[in-house]
Structures are given as C-alpha cells and as structure tokens.
Design goal:
The chain has 264 residues and is α+β, with helices and mostly antiparallel strands. The protein contains nine helices and six strands; from the N terminus they run αααααββααβαβββα.
Length: 264
C-alpha cells in the first residue's frame, strides 16, 4: 500500500538547492579545481552590469556583502567552481546525439502518431434552459439570420469578427477559433459537416440538441505519423532535458552518500 506523500513546501525546495550547491562546491574543492583570475574578473564585470548604476551596486555591496568586494569575488568564484562540476558531470554527459534521438523515435512509433484533426471556427446560437415553443422558433430564426451573415464572409478575419459579434459560445472571444481539434473529440454532427467542406468554406446550420452551430473549416489534417525530420529538433531537446535532470539527480545522490549533512 502506498502512503500519501508529503507536499514539499517552497522553503524545503530552496533548502535542498542550497544543500546541493554546497555539496557540489565541496566536490570541486576535493577535485582541486581552480578558476583563472581573468575568468573571475570577467564574471564580476558581467555581474555588475545587472545594476542600473554604480550607486545601486554600492548599496547592494553595503547591504548584502558587508561592503566587501572580496566577498563578491569569492561568491563568484564559488559559483564558477560549481559550474565546472555540473558541466563535466551533467551538461556534457546529457548531450543527446542525432543517432540517439532517431533510435528513440524508431522504438516509440506510437508516440509520433497524430490523429485526424480539424482546425475550424464556429458561431453558435444557444437556447435558454428548457425553451418553450416560442423560444425555439425565435432561436431558429436567429440561427438562420446568423447563417446568412456567415455565408457572406470570405476570410478567416471576416468570419472571426462576426463570431466575436454574434456567437454565444466560449470561443467567440478568440475569433471563434477552435485551433486544431482531434476528430474523436468532436460531436458527430460537427464531424459530418466538416468532412464535406473544403478549406475556407462555411457549413449550413448544425443542430446539437437545442443549439445551432455554424463552422468554417480552416484545415483538415488526416491521421499520420510525424517524420523524424519534423520532430528531431524538439525531440533532442526533450530527451536532453530529461537526461540532464536524471544526471543531476544522480550526482546529488552520489554526493549525499559520501557526505554528512547537518541542518542547524
């Protein structure tokens, strides 16, 4: 039986980061890593550029660093040593080659299957709850008036502006645009109407329960498998990020295993 996990509070995450950085810094010292003075000087110059003026930097120095430039340089040197370890043990090792990305692509074909989808805009006329016969008749009249106006539009922009003006569904605030929606997530009446339209065409009235909808097809994308060329850049980035996080976690565990951590 799994026990519920305690939610980590923000300060706990910050504390873990402090501990991790200290352990990495100690590892840098253990390896006797060094930072060239010119690199420290360059980093210090870049750090000072963050401040709007010399007075602002002096105020920071006084409040945060006890007025000591040396303290600033020591902290910068410490950060650079931490970066050295992370670059050697995490960053360089987390690089994902094109061949590795292709191997992942070929081993996980389902991941890159795209279902049939439609990009479209809509204008909807929604009825009141439990409409009476008179309200149903008025709704039908209103829907046909909307249809006549929709049929006169000749572009995405024109249809979208009309949707913002007269549509009663939630998409009216975004030009009536539904973006790309998978076929299986649409009502069958809407799918039936979209399948007979060409890009840029406007449907007749679509009745969904007591509501009426008009759609404009922008694009119809059949089901397909994305090619490796289409996904390789994003895939490499994703795999590298995952690998980086795993290596970083493993480094933290390794350093903790050989260290004694005391929180005072």
């Amino acid at each position: 039986m799994d026990f519920p996990k305690r939610k980590r509070l923000p300060w706990q995450g910050a504390l873990q980061m402090i501990i991790f950085e200290e352990l990495v810094y100690q590892e840098a010292q253990r390896r006797r890593l060094t930072v060239p003075p010119q690199q420290v000087a360059q980093a210090e110059a870049e750090f000072k550029k963050q401040f709007g003026s010399a007075d602002e930097y002096r105020q920071y120095l006084k409040v945060e660093m006890g007025g000591s430039d040396r303290t600033v340089r020591e902290k910068i040197k410490r950060s650079l040593l931490i970066e050295q370890v992370l670059k050697a043990d995490v960053e360089i090792k987390s690089v994902v080659t094109l061949a590795e990305a292709r191997a992942f692509y070929e081993k996980n074909p389902a991941r890159f299957e795209l279902p049939e989808s439609f990009s479209f805009q809509s204008i909807s006329v929604l009825p009141p709850q439990n409409p009476n016969d008179a309200q149903k008749k008025e709704g039908w009249k209103h829907a046909n008036e909307a249809l006549k106006e929709a049929k006169t539009t000749n572009s995405y922009q024109e249809f979208g502006l009309l949707a913002e003006k007269i549509s009663e569904d939630d998409f009216r605030v975004n030009m009536g645009d539904h973006r790309s929606v998978e076929k299986d997530k649409l009502p069958p009446q809407v799918v039936k109407a979209l399948l007979v339209l060409k890009s840029g065409q406007v449907s007749d009235l679509i009745s969904i329960e007591q509501a009426y909808t008009i759609v404009r097809l922008n694009a119809h994308s059949p089901a397909k498998r994305q090619s490796f060329e289409e996904v390789k850049t994003e895939l490499r980035s994703e795999l590298q990020k995952t690998k980086y996080e795993q290596l970083r976690t493993n480094l933290g565990k390794k350093l903790r295993a050989n260290a004694k951590v005391e929180i005072l």
